[in-house]
Q: What sequence folds into this?
């Protein structure tokens, strides 16, 4: 459930961000009364971004609760607000995001008066703003662990997840094209997202190879096969998006399928690589011997104990005990 949640949440957050940006740039927002609805491509793009984000928020909650095992565990995380915990902040972000995007999608389903449309437009902008951390917090979540490959690539994982979420959202819009000017916007979004996903995947792999043993799961086993498949799918999807035209409907949809498979397999590859890395004790040893891992994030003040009050008090007490 967890890698699927990573994919769905990332695509939903990126779709909400694109919809909010299109709303601000084009002035196309919630539709008016039914008798006046003549939606253009930009207007349809805004609506479809809202639908993808709303559906993704609902499905993300289902996947997260399924992974936790009990719905009460999800609700219990809302009993506290802890900015230092990526999991706690992610629960709050997902809850607020789902409420905002649910509000934004209502005028596209049922007629709404001007006040409700303005509330929905405000909800869409708020959801677009919260979609940005929703894309990246899962990368922070896995990097904030002692798993060697995740800890070693902690600088790249959050931005890689953001790029993969962008590629995933664009691929869904390629499968459900808005038409008109909206297709041109989606094409540019897809090319940018897939290109960044490939680039940052290469950066992550190079970062992991700084300690060769840590990078082994990316080159062998199930995680290696998934990693290679994700790069192949994304590259093929990027080429298809780049050469597709407005008339080549089949090629655009092929680009959407390939981009979706690339973004989804990337999440499963990273999760499986983490499992393989956690089972390899030599990866932890080599990471520590290379001066990385936890040692890499400890400051000089931490090393001398300047920031640890308890340690200073303990050492002072030991000195008093040993003095004549």
A:
């Amino acid at each position: 459930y967890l890698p699927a949640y990573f994919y769905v949440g990332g695509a939903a957050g990126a779709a909400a961000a694109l919809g909010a940006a299109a709303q601000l740039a084009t002035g196309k927002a919630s539709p008016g009364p039914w008798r006046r609805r003549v939606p253009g491509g930009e207007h349809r793009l805004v609506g479809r971004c809202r639908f993808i984000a709303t559906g993704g928020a609902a499905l993300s909650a289902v996947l997260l609760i399924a992974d936790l095992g009990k719905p009460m565990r999800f609700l219990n995380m809302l009993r506290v607000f802890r900015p230092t915990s990526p999991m706690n902040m992610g629960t709050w972000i997902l809850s607020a995001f789902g409420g905002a995007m649910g509000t934004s999608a209502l005028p596209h389903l049922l007629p709404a008066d001007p006040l409700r449309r303005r509330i929905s437009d405000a909800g869409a902008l708020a959801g677009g703003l919260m979609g940005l951390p929703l894309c990246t917090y899962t990368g922070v979540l896995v990097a904030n662990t002692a798993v060697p490959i995740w800890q070693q690539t902690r600088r790249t994982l959050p931005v890689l997840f953001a790029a993969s979420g962008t590629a995933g959202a664009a691929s869904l819009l390629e499968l459900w094209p808005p038409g008109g000017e909206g297709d041109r916007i989606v094409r540019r979004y897809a090319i940018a997202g897939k290109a960044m996903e490939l680039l940052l995947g290469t950066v992550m792999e190079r970062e992991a190879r700084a300690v060769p043993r840590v990078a082994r799961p990316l080159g062998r086993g199930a995680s290696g096969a998934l990693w290679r498949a994700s790069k192949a799918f994304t590259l093929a999807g990027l080429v298809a998006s780049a050469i597709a035209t407005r008339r080549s409907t089949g090629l655009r949809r092929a680009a959407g399928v390939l981009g979706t498979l690339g973004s989804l397999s990337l999440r499963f590859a990273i999760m499986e690589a983490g499992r393989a890395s956690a089972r390899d004790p030599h990866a932890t040893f080599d990471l520590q011997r290379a001066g990385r891992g936890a040692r890499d994030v400890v400051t000089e003040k931490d090393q001398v104990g300047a920031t640890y009050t308890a340690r200073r008090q303990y050492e002072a007490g030991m000195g008093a005990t040993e003095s004549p």
Residues 320-324 have pLDDT under 50 and may be disordered. The first helix runs from residue 2 to 26.
